[in-house]
Every structure is written in C-alpha cells, then in structure tokens.
Specification:
Structural class: alpha/beta
Helix content: 25-40%
Number of helices: 6
Length: 225
C-alpha cells in the first residue's frame, strides 16, 4: 500500500477522474460532498445507492475512520471511494464528542438530543469556556490500496439555544470565529462554497480544498461552483 499523501514531504499524488463512490449513508454529508465535487466533473455515486454495507468504525482518530470507510467502499465497488469522518470537539468536554459525534446522536440520528446533551454537560460542569472546533478528515482510496488523506479544521464557539435549520448535525450550535451566524443559519454557498464565489469556510471545505489541489483536475470556467 502506498503511503498517505500527508505522511511524507515529497509525494506524487494520484489524479482522481471519472466516477467515484462517496462512502456515506448520511444524507446531509452526501449532499455537501456532491456539491463540493460538482465543479470538477466527477460522477459521484453513493454507498447507499450501491447497497454497500457500512463498515464498523474502529479507528481512534478521524483520519483512521475515514480511511476505513473509503477503503471498504473502494474494494466493494471496485472504484475509487471518497470518505469523510468529521465531528465536533468541545474544549470544556476534553474534546468530546469528537470521533463519537455521530454516536452521541444515536441510531435515530437525534442531533437535537445530542446538542442538548452537550449543553447539559457544560452546565453541569459550570463551564464558562464554550470554545469548540469542527474537524473533517477526507480520504480517497483506490481498489489497489492507494490512499490520499487530508484534514481541515474550523474554530468557533457554542451558542444556546440552537439557531437555524440549514446544514445538519451540530451546525445550529456552532458559531465560527469571525461570524455572527451559526452554520445552521448559513446557506450552502456561505458554509462550504469554494472560491471564487465562496470562502471555503467549513472544516469539510478546508479539507476538500487541499484534496482538490492534490488530486483533482483544474476547474474550467463552465464548471465553477
């Protein structure tokens, strides 16, 4: 297996063209990843559409879990696969929920309950520090075992009560630094739109910009986001 893209100072990146599998069953994440890929002319299939099973995420980091998902989908679909593992890390909760962000929402994806749990824990600790950050690890895996890995982060603070119904997950309680609206109050272009129209604000967009620079063809004027 070749070394991850970020593990060495000098690496020859592999170009990504044609069709790719997005290794997620999360509708909100799938929508954002398709929007990010759309300017590049990449046909994006989803693991759900192909009936691929969700592998057990046994990694101890965002990057490890993204790799598990991408590699499993690449082998099963015999196509390059693209996976994201992301989550919210709260400073006063020692980085939780972190890689367990989705699990805190339970099988029913009750993120309203998960946001309430975070707020209750902060109040129980009398925490005045409401700093938090989102992390996104992106991995592209090919059926032959080659992988490319990239990571992005955005810092901010938690608000209460939640604000906005756009986005998904913990977006309504996350206020990114330098902004007056939460991710839940931003439209798609504001949150993760890519330059020149957007600013690549979100953690996923920041990771994707690194991936695009390394692995995707230039965007033509007719394909710009």
């Amino acid at each position: 297996m070749s070394r991850p893209a970020s593990s060495a100072a000098s690496v020859t990146h592999r170009r990504l063209e044609g069709s790719i599998v997005i290794a997620t069953h999360n509708a909100g994440k799938l929508r954002e990843l398709r929007e990010l890929l759309s300017p590049y002319g990449i046909e994006a299939l989803s693991a759900g559409e192909l009936g691929l099973a969700e592998p057990e995420e046994t990694g101890k980091s965002f990057r490890a879990n993204a790799r598990i998902k991408a590699q499993a989908a690449a082998v099963a679909a015999k196509l390059p696969a693209f996976a994201d593992d992301s989550g919210l890390a709260v400073e006063a909760l020692d980085g939780e929920p972190g890689i367990h962000s989705a699990r805190w929402a339970g099988e029913n994806k009750d993120f309203a309950g998960a946001m309430t749990k975070i707020e209750d824990l902060l109040r129980a600790r009398n925490a005045t520090d409401r700093r938090a950050h989102f992390v996104s690890a992106l991995c592209v895996a090919w059926p032959d075992g080659h992988v490319e890995e990239f990571e992005g982060r955005v810092d901010g603070t938690l608000v209460w009560p939640p604000r906005g119904t756009a986005g998904f997950g913990y977006d309504p309680v996350f206020l990114p630094d330098g902004h007056t609206r939460t991710f839940g109050e931003m439209n798609a272009e504001e949150k993760h739109g890519l330059p020149p129209k957007g600013k690549g604000l979100s953690h996923r967009a920041r990771a994707f910009l690194k991936l695009a620079s390394a692995c995707l063809p230039p965007v033509t004027d007719s394909l710009k986001f």
